[in-house]
Each structure stands twice: as C-alpha cells, then as structure tokens.
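Lecture notes, unit on protein representations.

Consider one protein chain, 461 amino acids long.
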Amino acid sequence: MIPGVGRGVVAAAAPATGRLAPAAFWPDGTRTTARLAEAAERALAERRGIVLKRETGGDHSSPGRERYDVAYPIQAGGKIYGVVALDIAPRPKPELEAVLRQLQWGAGWLEVLVHRLGAARLEPGSLEAAKQRLQVVLDLVASTLGHERFYGAATAFVTTLANRLGCDRVSLGFLKGGRVRVRAVSHSAHFGKQTNLVRAIGTAMDEALDQGATVIYPPQPGGEARVTRAHAALARQHDAGAICTVLFAEGRRFAGALTLERPVDRPFDPATVEFCEALAAVAGPVLEVQRRDDRWLVVKAAEAARLQLGHLIGPRHMALKLSVVGLAAAVTLLALAKGDYRVSARTVMEARTRLAAVAPFNGYIKEAPVRAGSVVREKQLLAALDDRELRLERLKWLSQAEQLVKQRDQALAKRDAAAQIAGAQIDQARAQLALLDDQLSRTRVVSPFDGSIVTGDLAGC
C-alpha cells in the first residue's frame, strides 16, 4: 500500500520482559539498520509518528540519494506494544503525512490483534471504548453502502455522523478543479451551492487542503501550529463554536475533506480528532468511488481523457508516452510515406504500333540482351547473329581477290589475253566481298524507335 519502501521492520515487546525485539523484516532475510533503529527509538520516546530525513551514501536501495525514515508506535490503553519503522523514497510533505496515516490505521489493526490474543491487559473500560469506536466506524461506512445514488449516501453519512458525535453541522466536500466543493451537509436535503455558509465551509476545507493536514479551531494547546484564518471566519460569521476539518485521500492524492462543527462548550479533544481521521480514511475513499460512479457517461469519458492527457504530458508514465509517440509516428508514416508495391500477375501488353524485328538472313543467334517486357531505346541492340562463318568467307574472298590481282598484273606484263579473264574474276571477288560486308553489317538487329518488347524471349537460345 505504501510505494517506494526500501526496507521495513516491526519490533514487538516480549511478554515476559517487556523489551522490544525485531519480530518481522521486509524484504525477508534483511536486517534493520542503525537509522531505522534511531527512528523507532524516537517514535517510542515521543509516543507518536515521526519522519526523519537523511542522505544515503551507499545504501542498497537508493545509493547517494535522499531517503526518509518513518516510524509509528503500536500502543493500546496507554501501553507500548511495539513499533513499525520504514525506509521510504522521498516524496512531498502531504504524501509523507499520508504514509503516517496509513501506518496509524495499520497499527490500529495490530491493536485489535493484541486485544484478540489477550496480550494486552487493558482496563475493561478502555477495551469497551475501542470496540464502540470500531462499531461506530463500521455503522457509518454501512450507512454509505445502503444507498444506490451518491447524494443520498453522502447525506446519510454526514447526518449520521453529526448525530453520533453531537455536532451542529457536518459537511462533506470533494476536490474538483483544485478547490474543494461542498457536496453534502447534514440535516439538509437541499442546500444552495452559492450561499455564504457553503462558500465559507468550502474555504475552510481549502485551507486544510493547502496545509495537507487536519485543522482544529480553536487550536489545541500544545498542538502543531496551523493556519486557521478561514476556520475563524466560519466560526465568527455563522456561530460555529468549535470546528475540525479532516482530509481523506484516495491512493496518493487528497480527494476531499470533512468539516465538523460543535458548540463552543464541546471542543474537539485528541481522541475525537483521531477517530474522525480514521473514519475519513475508511469512508472517504468509499464515497469518492460512489461519486465517480454516479456521474454522467459523458463526464466520465471527459474525466478519463483528462487523466490520460495528464499522464501523457506530466511526469512519469514513460511507457504511455513511448506508446503514443510510436503510434503517432506509425500513423504519420502510413499517411505520408510513398513507395512501390510489386504485384505478381500474368499480363498482356497491347501496343499501338507493332513492328517485327526479323533476321536478315538465316543464321544462329550469338547474343540477345533483351526479352519480353523490356523497355528499349532507339538503335539499342535487340539481338546479334553469329558472324564467324561470314568473316571466314570474307577472308577467303579477300585472299582470292589479292591472288587474282597478282595474276592480272603478270598477264598485263606479258601482254597475255588472260589479263581480261583475271580482271573479270577480280570483279566477281569484289562483288562477293561487298555482299559479305553487307551481311556482316546486318548481323546486329537494333530497335528502330523507343518502345517495349512485346513477344519473343531469345535468352535461352
């Protein structure tokens, strides 16, 4: 129930000697330290809850950081039966006081356990008084659970409490928008929210909330100094003799306040104040849950959205922040990113102008760098024929032409008629060379224009 606890110890008095000895440790297997022992001894000496601030220099739980030692005595009937001490992480003063209240309530359950086991030898009157106080708390909590609607439960609670404690008026308020708003007044089914009395009570509740502690007017002798200006104004303007405002919390935050008014001849003694604090600690969260559940659905949704927004822009809740940032990045990426998506399917391309690139003569394909579906540019190579035989044939005719030229030259030198025959053969050889050169120039089939290959796949040829 108390977050940030590094270690804790409960010391109990031995029945025979009455000396205190450690009875339980947390975590299991650890032992108390001199710091916790010092806090426990001071709580026992002063018979009240205390908070000690210290600096750690190498502590296992939070090295080199600020820590707090909190201790509260376990007593019943004026006798000490033990003490509980905790080493906790730093937190604001109102949360430290909330820790003390939780220890006080837990000590009350240990007190009941002491009575049950018979370890405490209290006077019959003290034990009976404790039982009566516990019965009153249970009855008041039961009065809140007997109503389905929040307003009825709150009115029944404050009215029953006013009758039990002999109060002239008991008011219940809840925190909203940084201020306490009065939601129920005893013996009043309907009250104006803007009346001077309601405003004065709400101001007194705000005064106690600002200080994060119980405020009593007139102040008790020897008690802690509190600002009571708003309480004094309430008593002066509306004839309230004695006023006590106690706060109640839900989790780690204050949820509201309870203001009790008595005649001037019946001030609030410490026992009554302690009872009111214990009652507020139990009944306050129950009423807060009923108040939240009794709202309109739209209000609940708006409150939930505001709470999540506070978690998002406030401290802590790092996991929520990272999740929202990741979600926003993913949505932005999906909305703005552009890319190609490949779909495999059988397609047919129909061209507006189709030309067939055919072989100029019979032969074998030497090279075919493109295939169906490829985009080609003008004069780009589509296929190349094997020209080895043509080149060999050209070399043959080239050498034969050179031989014929020599024969013709010899015949002309001898003035032989064979020179004319050799000239005709030279013309024939040159014609063959021209034919072969033309065929060699057409062994490369190129694209006549920019376009795409529709059919024909010669890659495996």
